[in-house]
# Entry
Amino acid sequence: MYHKIGGVAPVALALVLAAPAVAAVAAPAEYTMNLSKSAATVQAGGLGSTLITFTEPSRLENTRVTLSVTGLPPGVTAGFLPAKPCLCGSSIMFLRTSSSTPAGTSALTVTAITISSDPIGTTAPFSLTVTGG
# Structure
């Protein structure tokens, strides 16, 4: 004859707690973005730039990305040429400062996101130092 000792929940909890832990392993990046320079010093009212290239697996080489940058200080605008490059190609990021841009250093983040039904993103840091005019 069998005797009920406890409910199902305590037994299930005991099984979960006794299960071996599985280490989380980060998936390798699908592609990487490379900046020719990781920093630029620009006089207020001037222009800075860096070349952006990519390292990608062959299955993604004809994929295009949308580029953006965050962390821009007041009076700084960014542009990319081309704006939506192919991963097998390159783009130039231009940073234009106005004469009223305050002096100082800003940590920017450049982002690339694939234009696809399953977007893949990557980022790269960039430091912008603006000097007085």
About this structure: Residues 8-18 form the longest helix (11 residues).
